[in-house]
Amino acid sequence: MRRAAGTAMALLLRITVAGLAGTSGAATAAGVANAAGAASAAKTASAAKTASAAKTASAAKTASAAGVANAAAPIRAHLASGYAHTCAIRADGGLWCWGSNSSGQLGDGTTTTRATPARVGDATWVAVDAGTGFTCGIRADASLWCWGSNTRGQLGDGTTTRRTTPVQVGAGTDWATVSTGDSHTCAVRTDGTLWCWGFNRLGQLGDGAVVYTATAPQRVDTATTWANVATGYAHTCATRTDGTLWCWGDSSAGQLGLGLLSYRTTPGQVGTLTSWDTLTAGFFSTCATRTDGTLWCWGENGYGQLGVTGIYRTTPVQVGTATDWAGVRAGLDTACGTRIDGSLWCWGNNTSGQLGDGTTTHRYAPVRIGAASDWTADVAAGFHNCAVRASGTLWCWGDNASGQLGDGTTATRPDPRQVTFA
């Protein structure tokens, strides 16, 4: 969809009812397959354009107990920020990336840094996530593709060869959701199985540390009820369809939520609750929402990335007392979340103005970003943050040394600026 000549083209990402880009959400396995190919781009764009942020979040918040399983099932992420690059899927299924490209993470066949969005081929995409120096995405046929840095086998193509264009991970066409960390990747299939690959020095692949590096997907556990997965620097957490939460890998800062300050090489359940909903992992921290709308974080807290004061936490701690959180997204030492009223909040590291509050002051509690109340649940966080409004427009702010804000410059922005697509 285009606006009048001379204005920015609306991003019009496909917004899901309970989703947060790259975290967790509300499509059933059958719905995932349908979402991969059934709805036309025009119909999808129209739905994204007309649904308000409040309505979107409200649907997530008011899901009945019977709908908890649906709320825990996989969704597709349409917006992702890596260490210094950004990728987004537009309403027509086109994938666009920009920013640092030293490892080919933009997928355009070069290693040229780009300060404005550039399309990645002509395929139709339904999901994307960005690691430190690599990117992975799912196409409309449910095939999985990765590109960029591959020193630890994190691309899953059986090699450690850097790729500047997307390379398929195996031959499967049943991938539901994918999450990329620093040097490892995990993904859930539509049959409920969970697979991880890449670096495994601290057991982040969940295999009992049988291998040090895996260059192809290997199955985690024997469960067939995995719903969503989130990867941090060297830890992994995932939810199951029964609403339980499991974590493994590095816990040197308590990021597994298991009361440990060491590591665990196989999945361990976080408490006994069956009400976990959206899920996200920072470098050394983890955050998640529950179906009652509360927000919880744990792990490293040097910059306030847990949204509370004090030192690290080895078990989940509630962020404030609000019960209207729609979703959360963490990256590095920063986190952002949306509430059901469409407001956007960020906290943690603010060295590059990535909290979007016009300052560089670290925040130990969520601070509201401006007065807008039309933010959707599509958010990506890190040294730079991006988010989508109900109008379909994309906004980014924070570090911009490699052009990752997509505004054609390398100037740091302490408040949201709209991204223009050619």
From TrEMBL:
Signal peptide location: 1-29
Residues annotated as domain RCC1-like: 126-420
GO CC, alphabetical: cytoplasm
Keyword annotations: Guanine-nucleotide releasing factor, Repeat, Signal
Example GO molecular function: guanyl-nucleotide exchange factor activity
Protein name: RCC1-like domain-containing protein
